From TrEMBL:
Response regulatory domain sequence ranges: 4-118
Keyword DNA-binding listed: yes
The Sigma-54 factor interaction domain, residue ranges: 135-364
CDD domains, per database record: AAA, REC
Name of the featured protein: Two-component system response regulator PilR
SMART domains in the cross-refs: AAA (SM00382), REC (SM00448)
Amino acid sequence: MGYNILIVDDEKSFRDFLEILFVDEGFNVFLAKDVSGAIEILEKEKIDIVLSDLVLKDEDGLDIARFCKENNLKIPVILMTAYASNETAIESVKLDVVDYITKPFDTDELLDLIHEVLLNNKAEADTCCEGLEEIIGQSPEIINIKKEIINVSKSDATVLITGESGTGKELVARAIHKLSDRNNKPFVPINCAAIPSELLESELFGYKKGAFTGANYDKPGIFEAANGGTVFLDEIADMPLSLQSKLLRVLQESVVRPIGSNIEKRVDIRLIAATNKNLSDEIEKGSFREDLFYRLNVFNIHLPPLRDRKDDLLLLINHFIDKYSKKYMKNIKGISFPALRLLENYSFPGNVRELENIIERAVIIEKTSKILPSSISLKIVGNEDKHVKHDFTNEEELEIPENFSLENHIADIEKRYIVKALSMTNYNKTKAAKLLGITLRTLRYKMDKYGLK
């Protein structure tokens, strides 16, 4: 079902024009010619947004905004006007009018504004229980993950978090710790892939003075340092086999033996591990112990890639805008509809981490109060084409991989150039079509063909 829009204008021809425009966009349209008619509709119908002329014969469009505010309707109101005085602007702010659009206006500009306001208004409703503030999203996948976090946090079960790089595995681990009875004890993360294998053992288990050259003092390992708390082992698949057997003993016996010591020490920790690899494949290759896998996989939480949870995109964008606006002392209020559409049509190979980097950069360079497409930097060309080069100079540089489809490859290149042109023109379809050397009708056809909203 589409959004319900109330259009208020005293000129019938203009009302009819707007009705056709919004019906074609999938809206349910309600029409009123004056303030009293608008209020009658607002009292009877569930309206999502109001688009009203500022001047309605002898009436004031601000009266509609005043009615919404006084009755706590929380319906965004946009006013159409040929001009606005300072007094009107001040009164509009008091009445929470979200925006003005100046007559005459471009219909694409109006539609973009309406969609932008509706999407930002919807995103403000995201709330979650204490401890899950950093797990952003209301998609079915994320709601289920939040439930899993709450359930597993009540126990001391070992957890294995799986998912692509950048999906937020450490955030989930921290949330589990925060909601558990161990939350007043340390949470100690360590990346098994970031530490050389010869140093990883001493980091985890510690060492005694004189155990090796340079061991000038006793040093407790991470398992001891986190006693009573949670240890998070990221990229567990990269742990050497020699250490995997020692980790298995920690899980089975709750004891550690520092390097150079004959004495075992008891530890009380909760272990959470994560990987972006398929551990079943690693077991087949002989690089991961099957018995350790079963010990780790008592409770599994799988995080979907961002491309599979696009319903959460705007919530994540607004979260990062708020975060980095505060950090860099910028007054960024949200994202423009064209910029949002640009991101919606991107695949995010780096997942949420990549989105965060994109928004941080955009906040830094944006000069207006909303992020525009010109501030969005994406890896458009060649991002997903791992085998095929676009920028070749002779036949010898051409590579044709297995299962190659020339039709699909050409379509992919065409789609990327359309997205790039839309980005360069702030999603102005007329300018984008001109830039691409095609008609506006052809551009709209191709956007529908490739699912570009």
